C-alpha cells in the first residue's frame, strides 16, 4: 500500500506544505522559467568581470560573495552591498540564477562587493528567523572589520566604512528592520551607510486600493501575498505586524528609529504600490532621509525576470535605470 502525503497548503508553482510538516519547494510552474530558480555554482575565477564564492560563517549562516574584477593598479577599496533576497520569507535562495544575473550586474556596474545571505525559510523557520540571519551577517562583517574574523576578499578589497543593505520584495522588509536594529548597536569600525529596499513587501491587514485594482504579475499575486505571509509571520499575527507594516500602529514610531539614508525603489504597476507609498510618506513625515526611485510601467521585481529583461526593450531599459540609480546612491554615500 502506498501512503500519499497530504497537502495542507500550496502556493501554485512554488511551494507545497504537507500534513507531516514537510515542505516541497520543487518548481512546478511553467518549465520555460525553471532556469531562473536553478542554483549557480560559485566560481573563484572571474566570469564577465565577477567572481563568486560561498562562505560558511557558522553552521547556521552561509553567504555568497560577488567580487568585481578591479585594476591591479587601483588601490581604492570597494563598498559592500549586503543583499537580503525576496520570496515572501518562504522560497528562493541566494544562489538562484535570478539573483545571480542581477547581482553580478550590480557588482560590476557599481564597483561594489555584493554579499547575499542564505536566509532561513518559513514555515520551518518563521519570522524573526531571516531577520536574525541578516543581522548576524552584518555583525560578522563588523567582526571582519575588527580583525576578529577573516575573509580574504573582504580584507583585501572592502571599504567597511561604506556598507549598504539591499533587499528585494520581502528582503526589502528586512532592510528596514535590520537597519533599525543596527541603529541600536555600535557597529564601529563598520558604518552602515544606507538602505535600499526594492519593491518591499509592505502591506496591511486591510487591502489597499492597488491590491484590488492593479494587475497581478508573475512574481506577485494576492494568493502569494496571503499564503506566504500566513506561513511566515509569527502565529496569530496579522499583516499589521511591524515586519510587514513598519508604518502602522503596531510598529515602533519611525521618528524614534536611528536609520541611515534610504533609497526606496518602487515599480509603477506594483500591486502593493499604495502601501509602499504609505511607508515613503511616513518616512518623510518622520523626517528620515529617504529618496524615491520609481520604475515607470514596471511590475513587482521585474528586473529579476530574465526572460522579460532579454525580450522586452522597456524592461531591459528600466533594469539598467534601476541599477544606475542604485549605483548613484552608493556613490553618494
UniProtKB/TrEMBL annotation:
Coiled coil: none annotated. Belongs to the 'GDXG' lipolytic enzyme family. This is Carboxylesterase 15. Residues 81-303 form the Alpha/beta hydrolase fold-3 domain. It comes from Pyrus ussuriensis x Pyrus communis. InterPro entries: AB_hydrolase_3, AB_hydrolase_fold, Carboxylest/Gibb_receptor. It comes from the Eukaryota. GO terms for molecular function: hydrolase activity.
Amino acid at each position: 500500500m502506498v501512503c500519499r502525503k497530504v497537502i495542507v497548503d500550496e502556493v501554485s508553482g512554488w511551494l507545497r506544505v504537507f500534513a507531516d510538516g514537510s515542505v516541497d519547494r520543487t518548481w512546478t510552474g511553467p518549465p520555460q522559467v525553471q532556469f531562473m530558480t536553478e542554483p549557480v555554482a560559485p566560481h573563484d575565477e572571474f566570469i564577465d568581470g565577477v567572481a563568486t564564492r560561498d562562505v560558511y560563517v557558522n553552521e547556521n549562516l552561509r553567504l555568497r560573495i560577488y567580487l568585481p574584477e578591479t585594476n591591479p593598479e587601483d588601490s581604492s577599496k570597494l563598498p559592500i552591498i549586503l543583499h537580503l533576497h525576496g520570496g515572501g520569507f518562504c522560497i528562493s535562495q541566494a544562489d538562484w540564477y535570478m539573483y545571480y544575473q542581477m547581482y553580478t550586474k550590480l557588482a560590476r556596474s557599481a564597483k561594489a562587493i555584493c554579499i547575499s545571505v542564505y536566509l532561513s525559510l518559513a514555515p520551518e523557520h518563521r519570522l524573526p528567523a531571516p531577520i536574525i540571519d541578516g543581522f548576524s551577517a552584518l555583525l560578522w562583517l563588523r567582526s571582519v572589520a575588527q580583525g576578529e574574523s577573516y575573509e580574504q576578499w573582504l580584507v583585501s578589497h572592502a571599504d567597511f566604512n561604506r556598507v549598504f543593505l539591499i533587499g528585494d520584495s520581502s528582503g526589502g522588509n528586512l532592510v528596514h528592520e535590520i537597519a533599525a536594529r543596527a541603529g541600536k548597536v555600535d557597529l564601529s569600525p563598520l558604518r552602515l551607510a544606507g538602505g535600499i529596499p526594492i519593491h518591499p513587501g509592505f502591506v496591511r491587514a486591510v487591502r489597499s486600493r492597488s491590491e484590488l485594482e492593479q494587475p497581478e504579475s508573475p512574481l506577485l499575486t494576492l494568493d502569494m501575498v496571503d499564503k506566504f505571509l500566513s506561513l511566515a509571520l509569527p502565529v496569530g499575527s496579522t499583516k499589521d505586524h511591524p515586519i510587514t507594516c513598519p508604518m502602522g500602529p503596531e510598529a515602533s514610531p519611525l521618528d524614534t528609529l536611528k536609520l541611515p539614508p534610504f533609497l526606496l525603489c518602487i515599480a509603477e504597476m506594483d500591486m502593493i504600490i499604495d502601501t509602499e507609498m504609505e511607508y515613503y510618506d511616513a518616512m518623510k513625515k518622520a523626517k528620515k532621509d529617504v529618496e524615491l526611485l520609481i520604475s515607470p510601467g514596471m511590475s513587482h521585481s521585474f528586473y529579476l525576470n530574465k526572460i522579460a529583461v532579454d525580450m522586452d526593450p522597456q524592461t531591459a531599459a528600466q533594469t539598467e535605470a534601476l541599477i544606475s540609480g542604485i549605483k548613484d546612491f552608493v556613490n553618494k554615500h
